[in-house]
Predict the structure of rhamnogalacturonan endolyase.
Amino acid sequence: MEKVAKRSRLKQLVFWLMMIELLMLLSVSSQKIPCRKILAQDSATATDNSPPVVRLQTSNHSVVVDNGLVRVTIENPSGYLMGIKLYNGLDNVLERRNKRYNRGYWDIVWDNSTYDKIETEHLNVITQTDDLVELSFTKTWNSNRRNSIPLNIDKRFIVRRGIPGLYMYAILERLENFPPAQMYQIRIAFKLRQERFHFMALTDTRQRIMPSLRDLNSDRSQVLAYKEAALLTNPTNPQFRGQVEDKYQYSCENKDNKLHGWIADSDKKNPAVGFWVITPSNEFRTGGPHKQGLTSHVGPTALSMFYSTHYAGLDMDTYYKQGKYWKKVLGPVLIYLNSNSTRKALWEDAKRQLGEEIASWPYNFTGSKDYPSAKERGTIRGQLVVRDRYINNKLMQAHSAFVGLSPPGEVGSWQTSTKGYQFWTQTDENGRFEINLVRPGEYNLYAWVYGFIGDYKLDLNITIQPGSKIDLGTLIYDPPRNGPTLWEIGIPDRTAAEFFIPDPYPTLLNTLCNDPADRYRQYGLWDRYTDLYPDGDLVYTVGKSNYSQDWFYAHVLRLGGNSTRIPTTWQIKYNLDNVRFNDPSSLQPYFSTQLIEQVEVGNETVVFLMLLIIKNMEKVAMRSNFIIRQLAFWLIMIKLFLFLSVCPRKIPARKILNHNNTTNSRSPYAVRLETSHRQSVVVDNGLVRVTIGNPSGHLVGIKYKGVDNVLEWRNKPGSRGYWDVVWDKDKYDKMETEHFNVITQTDDLVELSFTKTWNSDNGKSVPLNIDKRYIVRRGVPGVYMYAILERQENFPPTHMYQIRLAFKLAQEKFHFMALSDTRQRIMPSIYDQRTDRSKVLAFKEAVLLTNPINPQLTGQVDDKYQYSSENKDNKLHGWIADSEADNKNPALGFWVISPSNEFKTGGPHKQDLTSHVGPTLLSMFDSTHYAGLDMDTYYEQGKHWKKVLGPVFIYLNSNSNKDSDVRKALWEDAKRQLSEEIASWPYNFTRSEDYPCAQGRGTVRGQLIVRDRYTGNKLVQAHSAFVGLAPHGEAGSWQTNTKGYQFWTETAENGLFEINHVRPGDYNLYAWVYGFIGDYKLGLNITIQSGSKIELGTLIYDPPRNGPTLWEIGIPDRTAAEFFIPDPCPTLMNPTCNHPVDRFRQYGLWDRYTDLYPDGDLVYTVGKSNYSQDWFFAHVLRNGQNNTRMPTTWQIKFNLNNLSETGNYTLQLALASAHYAEIHVRFNDPSSLRPHFSTQLIGSDNAIIRHGIHGLYRLYSIMAPANLFHKGENTIFLTQKRKWRTFNGVMYDYIRLEGPMVLFDDHLAHNRGGFVFDI
């Protein structure tokens, strides 16, 4: 619908009726227009006004495709382009007098300058419709074709309805068995009609009438310094006399080489005709955006260069070795023809067509599966900033930087990369970039920044998959810098354009190079150096000279007598008023080009250089001519080099346990295996004797220090030491196995395997293949245990809620339990849980001891959940058997040691059980404790899964010293052993291929910093942040992940982190930072391979923030520990929870809420209340009459003295736990029927009654319009609505009210949890 004028009511009515009709039409459209754009010509329909259909004619010698605008003739089967007829122009725009293979053709220069025109052998019609014909000309290489390039070739031609031209591309392929080859150049060449095409156009400013091909003959020109350059002495067109012709003067960078061509001026019979090579994308070109290549030149010749060593030389990666598969699609490019009366109109129309082709890329009409559509490609975005620590250490937005994806390689390797695809863009003023339409594949991200030296590379492989949308966040580039700048010459822009470019010789001009931006293209400028410096070389004085006038653009040789060339030495003179003799200096020379030269840098106050550009000179010292000092320095350097040259290989990264160095004199007992027992296997190393059920794999007994069995011998053999799993609908499986295998048997080690393979007949057992492993080592008092669990793709779906190892110890011996330095106690016996000795409290696991066997425990509470621990802390726990009265046996310790948490689920803060009454020890690998149904427990059919759980170490120790604190000695020794196990992880003695050794793992390191834009936008080093690798997922998904491995660490004070010993696999990097809300996720997949050492550089976390802080309650630490935790009921105490850091573990604290708030719910007044005293740790139900529970509503009162009338306020509500809860949020209106916000029903982590100060973390950013607030006093009401379970409730982590963005510039009094804020 176009222009509307004269707005009478009638016309307005008609206008709106038409608009309504248009909207109705759009609303009933059957489907959206595809995101891939279509050229305007593509919309032609089969009406009288539509262009003719595309017709195909084939014969034995040629193929003709005609669309009524152009008639394209291709030789069959060679694939040579023989002719293009433009119906309103020429009968053939190609040179008719040339041979058939020398008009339009692909060619390759390969080994030893061998030339191949890629003649093909077979024709295939890929697509033939009225709208489009696509033809394929192929050739398959075999070993009999030694004289042809070892490539499989598929040349494609496409003619489309309504398009005056043809699209061309090629698919080149090398199989692994092809011989090695070097490929130096790949291109398409077009030789146009010599008598017609005389005008060449490359850009708006580079256009000219061109000499003819005959003008390069010796009778019409003189060859200059090289064969491509000629001085026209007697040209056909006299106006060119005295000009230079050189095809390299018409070169162009890839990023600018999108359109070039020729124009045939009109004559009496034909209008003016244009022939254009349009390249809408550079993804298939080599060398990145700045690689220069040829365009058009005398012939008239037009080129489409895909691949060459021009302007790069032998540094280009031209070698294709045998044994590596390679395939690449070159193109499509469009050969576009147009006609008009003027040159300018033809050029502008070609530019318009280029715009349409770019908008339509990638094309949707190609018929090759090797050319992905837009939907099959991906996008990557981010922001690049620069930190130059000797400028101001602030981040600078890297505007106009070039950022690109290129095949994995070293920093800057994109410049010489040829084999893969590249995708580049430029950043905006803020350093933001978005690279669209990236082909699936593996890439690195590279960049360089105008004004800064060096190259940036994100030290991480980026995997693009169909539909990928990767957000990298903010990337920091630290350019090379060793000290402050003393002086500099030039601008770091990768060119010499800013230096002095002399006037050319008046007799060697090319008028196409007269534009100031192109004057460096003039011929012979290098010889002007000798003219300008006839008596001596260039001397540049810092502070006086000007590089745009006094620094010659190229450091070249000097012309000598008899046409000789002499090396040159340039000088840079400068003053140092303050000289330091103790620090080294750095000279930063950067070259925009180099031709096999050796650069020499002297060590005097005058620096002598053979170089092209000096980009920077940094901190300078040791500039005095103290020969002795310098001699000593170089002697030290020589010694260092000699030392390094003879250094042996590094000590392997994997550390060995001290036990591994035990000799026969220290450990006389070899490890012995006994398999003669009917239903058991025995392994004995002289310290422990381990008995395992055969083939069940249950741990039946451990003999140690005179105790025949430290396990409970009265239990059945399957209930002493065993693996178990809880699966579908509370099914229970003890993972009893069926086969026994000896994996390793030596004097130093025995490893045993107990396996079971699931099949559909085992419907009552968990659908898993099970391999339980036991390792007993020489000189080690204990046993290592691990399991390899596997699900094949055809296994039925299942839920697995819990996987663990359980040990039931001898009841009459083990009475003392130790979990940490502060959590140790004499424990009740299992008999104390009987109804005659205890009283069950609110749930079956919690009992009040009323008549325990040990009277000193009377009146205490015992609850296994009080002994839980976070994964990061759950590395050591166990039991102690005190020495017997007759001294028959010493005191014994039985310990579960977990040296790594990589195989545990839910990340470092997942809480789980440890030891409890039994005496029982657990090694928990997977459970829903403190997380509930949010844990990912479902294993679907059709997906293979395998995971190694463990190894964990069952360690036994003893002490018979009656004069010492025996329990403490045993505990300290167990801690020492834990340290040795951690230092030795990953172990080097396991014999499973599924457990990689240290050398088979990788490392990731980097730095995490925080940018909170409403606290000054300054960068804050994320100290003590948790940073980890976990399987792919959303931000924070690591909390509920169960299927993969996780690797976590804490950052140092400066935010640096290093994650070591990471198993090979695909991960995301996650983090959270103490003091900041939200979760960080690097928007990039990280692939760890054997030996990977990935450097991520500096990562920036922007935590959720919509405005300035008005007030806050709590500390963002993912727990409720900072809030008020009441004293427990005196009659419901457990002494292991008396320590201040463990007081939240006491039983029944939730009921203290009703005691503290008997007449009304909690009211918190910002500026007066203190969250550590006035904010109860858990928002729970209130106890009512007749054992009922009532919902509770908490209030937060605060003042707004200066209310904003526009914008939104934001309530940041972070929860540390939720159990079948629903929080309703209301602003100033507690009686409103509907809340302003509801969390809906959330959570089942049960952390409140299981004595966990947190469960799963949740964050809600609640937008509140300004009209919900009042000037002056305001109240936020938080109601926990659900009451159908006894223990519904939440624990808050942190609450913050943020003002609208418009308030940011106002003066804010920002203080954590303390004051009323004046806004």
Summary: Helices lie at 9-27, 343-359, 528-532, 547-550, 627-646, 966-983, 1152-1156, 1171-1174. The CA atoms of residues 581 and 622 lie 4 Å apart. The mean pLDDT is 89.
